Amino acid sequence: MVGKINNVAELDAVIVEFEKRKVIQEALLISQWHETKESIKPINLLKDAAHRLTDSNTMLGAVIKGIGGLSMGFLTKNLILGHTTSLPGKILGTALNLTTTGTVYSNAEKLKAYGVALYHNFIKKPKKSA
Predict the structure, then answer these.
(1) Does 69 score more than 80 pLDDT?
(2) How far, in Å, CA of 70 to CA of 75, rounded?
């Protein structure tokens, strides 16, 4: 780092240099602390995880298929059977849930195409020609 110091002037110069270095390192350390503190907040961790999931198109497709399948399975089970306490009702509900989930998951692309067509035909307002 520093070679041999021969007089007081050189010693003062080295001390000033080390004090400047200390101030710079302190500022860098504080900045890094704030970045680290922000990155480990739970909401930022969730945002980062969601961002990594949606970066990949194949991963996004799989996540959408899975969520769609599960939600349709539970929705169908609750609409048809409601809340049942009997054993045959529970078995039928679970079978219905699994069947619907599998069907939606395996036909997600067709369902997506139907959804887009319905959206464009019924919900989206047509543009008026001038």
Answers:
(1) no
(2) 8
CA 90/CA 102 separation, integer angstroms = 18
Determine which of 25-29, 72-76, 105-109, 122-126 has the lowest per-residue pLDDT on average.
122-126
DSSP line for the chain: ------SHHHHHHHHHHHHHHHHHHHHHHHHHHHHHHHHTSHHHHHHHHHHHHHHSHHHHHHHHHHHHHHHHHHHHHHHHT-S--SHHHHHHHHHHHHHHHHHHHHTHHHHHHHHHHHIIIIISPPPPP-
Per the CB < 8 A criterion, the answer to whether 73 and 94 are in contact is no
73, with CB counted inside 10 A (0-12, 13-18, 19+), is buried
Reported pTM: 0.39
Question: In the block, which residue shows the tokens 């990949």?
Answer: 56
Please give the Cα distance from 19 to 17 (Å, whole number): 5
